[in-house]
Amino acid sequence: MTDIVERLRAFPAMYQNGAMWVMSTKPEPLTVEAAAEIEKLRAERDALKEDAARYRWLRNADNWSEHGPCPLVATCEDTIYGEALDHAIDAALASGEKDE
C-alpha cells in the first residue's frame, strides 16, 4: 500500500455532468491541500522528535560527566538534571526567557 500523501495526490477529482459522474485527470484541490498539510505536519513532527530526543538525553544524569554538557546549562557546580532540569526549563519558558 502506498503512502496516504501519494494516494491523495493521485486521487482523481469527480464531478457531475448532468446525470453522469465524470472522473478528472487532475486531483481534487482539497486532496492536494490535505496532502501538503500532512507533509508539513510530518516535517514538524520529525523536528519535534529530534528536539525531544536531545532533551531526553540532556536531562539524563547518566550522560553527564566531568567534561559533559554541564557548561551548556549552568556552571558545573550548579549542575541540575532530571526533574530539577524540567522545572528550571518550565520556569524559564514561563518567564519568557529565550531558548536560543
List keywords for this structure.
100 residues, alpha+beta, two-stranded antiparallel sheet, 56% helix, rod-shaped
Explain this structure.
- There is one protein chain.
- The protein is of the alpha+beta class.
- The chain folds into 2 domains: 1-47, no CATH class; 60-100, no CATH class.
- The protein has 4 helices and 2 strands; from the N terminus they run αββααα.
- It has helices at residues 4-10, 29-59, 70-73, 82-95, and strands at 12-17, 20-27.
- A two-stranded antiparallel sheet has the order 1-2.
- Helix 1 runs antiparallel to helix 2.
- The two termini are 42 Å apart.
- The mean pLDDT is 75.
Beta strand %: 5-15%
Elements, N to C (H/E): HEEHHH
Number of domains: 2
Describe the strand arrangement of the main beta sheet, using strand numbers.
1-2
Straight-line N-to-C gap: 42 Å
Number of beta strands: 2
| Gyration radius over CA | 24 Å
Q: Which structural category fits the helices and strands?
A: alpha+beta
Overall 3D geometry? rod-shaped
How does the major sheet shape up? Answer: 2 strands, antiparallel
Report the average pLDDT across residues.
75
Uncertain residue ranges: none
Amount of helix: 55-70%
Helices, by number, come to 4
Oligomer: single chain
Task: Give the arrangement of secondary structure elements.
Layout (H helix, E strand, L loop, with lengths): L3 H7 L1 E6 L2 E8 L1 H31 L10 H4 L8 H14 L5
Antiparallel strand pairs: 1-2
Helix pairs in contact: 1-2
Sum this structure up briefly.
With 100 residues, the chain is α+β, with helices and mostly antiparallel strands. The protein has helices at residues 4-10, 29-59, 70-73, 82-95, and strands spanning 12-17, 20-27.
